[in-house]
Amino acid sequence: MSTIALGAAIAVLTGAGAGIGIGLATAKAAESIARQPEAKGDINKALLLGCALAEATAIYGFVIAILIIFLLK
Asked: Three-class SS of residue 25?
């Protein structure tokens, strides 16, 4: 039982990586917009796409953790 909990905890750690990645991307996007305001639209498009992909990774980790908990009992 403890190995199942450990596996689920490791799977959920993808959320931490996604949070750090989204935070860094947002900081760099804000810095880029401050330096080149005319490129705001392109920067926002790239930022939203990157954030969506990073968040999808966190959701996949969460789904794997739920599967580990409920299917490996």
From this structure: helix
- Helix/strand/coil for 20: helix
- Whole-structure pTM value: 0.78
Residue 54 CB contacts under 8 Å (≥ 6 apart), including other chains: 18, 21, 22, 25
Residue 66 Cα to chain centre, angstroms? 17
Encoding tokens for residue 65? 């953790």
Chain centroid, CA 63 distance in Å:
13
The per-residue pLDDT for 72 is: 86
User: Domains in the chain, start-ordered, CATH in brackets?
Assistant: 2-71 (1.20.20.10)
Degrees (nearest 5) of the Cα angle 18, 20, 5? 55
